[in-house]
Amino acid sequence: MKFLLTTSVKFHLAMRLAQSLATGDDVNNTYEFAVEARAAEPLRILPSQLARHALSSEFARVCRHPIDGMYIVPSACDQFTWFGLLFIRRGIYGGGIFRFNVRIPSDFPATTSLPSVKFDLFIFHPNIDPSSRRPDLTRYFPDGWKKDKHHIQNVLLVVQRLFFSFDFDPESSANPVAATMWREDKEKFRSIAKNCVNQSRMEVYDEPEDANDPNVLRLTKSGSLHNFEMIAVVISWFWKNLALSTVNTVVSRTREPERAKRFMKVAVQTPPQSNVGVRPYSKITKFL
After folding, report:
1. What strands lie across the sheet with 70-74, from one edge to the other?
2. Which residues of 190-204 are buried (b: 16+ CB within 10 A; e: fewer)?
């Protein structure tokens, strides 16, 4: 077995060897001493370091593969919280602007618990609990969270595609009233969904629930989605773990001021029947 000797160890080894030769002691003791001195400590990785690395990798994955109409940023105060803003561009909820947050289990990535998603506003939807404002994610991850198969991006895709899928069994849905109404009275369902869209646009400039967090997503009446330059400067320690190219991707791929201006100025209208369940989000795939 070979070991790397430092100058200090070499010096002590030479001294012990000279002493052994002078006194006639067993040289094997000197050899054992050298081996013990050169043995390295095992590498120790703290759970907090492992979580930070895993979350940085998850966020980098979202940056490399952005989800249409969705903007995500990690919290500056809690590495297990992400803030999201979702623009629905078509369908029954077309024109809606929904702010939400993602809470990641504190034992990530070794967890078997699913992340939780919570919308800031009430949304009338068969799979969103009306009281907690949380979508039921268990139907898409029936076996729980599997770190070797699932990613936070899978959860974000479910959140986006919820707004294009409404056919749920009332007995197992998060909102049985909405599920029943979709099956029995689609026009009334569309009317209530339109009210949710209008409400989201009326309150889009209000302070979010996590207003004290410097990274929380805000909209201003200036026409920009939000101040990404400020976010890039007032950067949290979480962002510092990402490559510079990744951060540049986030800023460039999510800065769409002209598109946002057009989106914000378009009047909200009830979508025609043909736009319901448009491709490619008519169904949500289970992440088995």
Report:
1. 70-74, 81-87, 97-103, 116-119
2. bebbbebbeebeeeb
What does the domain layout of the chain look like in residue ranges?
7-38, 47-275
R_g over Cα of the chain: 28
Quote the longest CA-to-CA distance of the chain: 101
What CA–CA distances, in Å, run from 200 to 48, 95, 97, 104?
37, 9, 6, 25
Burial of 19 (0-12, 13-18, 19+ CB in 10 A): exposed
If you classify domain 47-275 with CATH, what class do you get? alpha beta
Q: How far is it, in rounded angstroms, from Cα 162 to Cα 156?
A: 10
Give me the tens of pLDDT residue by residue for the chain, a chain 288 residues long: 444 545 555 556 566 656 665 565 554 554 554 455 556 677 777 878 889 999 999 999 999 999 999 999 999 999 999 999 999 999 999 999 999 999 999 999 999 999 999 999 999 999 999 999 999 999 999 999 998 999 999 999 999 999 998 888 999 999 999 999 999 999 999 999 999 999 999 998 888 888 889 888 888 776 444 444 333 333 333 344 443 333 333 432 443 434 443 444 444 443 443 333 333 333 344 443
Cis omega (within 30 of 0) on the bond before 115? Answer: no
Q: Is the pTM of this model over 0.85?
A: no
